[in-house]
Amino acid sequence: MTRPRTPSQTVGPYYAIGLSRLPQNELVGRDDPGATMLIGQLIDGTATPISDGMIEIWDGRRWGRSGTDAAGTFTFLVTKPEAVAGAPHFDVFVFARGLLRHQLTRIYFPDETEANARDPVLAALDDADRATLVAVEQDGSLRFDIRMQGDRATVFFEH
Description:
Helices cover 13% and strands 28% of the residues.
C-alpha cells in the first residue's frame, strides 16, 4: 500500500510561513555599546541563495532568529558574547528545505586572533575549514556566509 508523504518526510519551505513572520533578529538595542550588524547569506551547493531558510543564533545568554530573504540574506543585531570555553563565538543553527534535522555551526570574530588560536574547536581544524567559521569585517558590519555544500562549504558539527 502506498501512503502519501508527510511533512516529516519532505521538509518544505515552512520556516518563512510558520517561524520567521515576526522579527526576532535583534539580540541587543541599536544604541547598546558594541552593537553591530551581522549579515550573511545562506547558499546551497551550486552557489544558489536559499530563500526560505532560517538561521538561529545563541550567544550563551540571548537567542535570535532570522529568516532568509529572496537573496538568501539573514541579519542580526548583536554584540560580541563573552568567551566561554574558548574564543567568543555564536552557536548557529541552520534550517532549510530538505534538512530533516538542523545543522550546527559557529561564528567566530575576526578581531580575536589570539583567542581564536587557543580555541580547541578551531585548533582541531585545518586552515581552510577554520576560515569557514570566522566572520569578516565588511563596511562596519560582520559578514558570515553559510555554504551548505561545495567549494568552501561551512564546517558543521554533530549535535
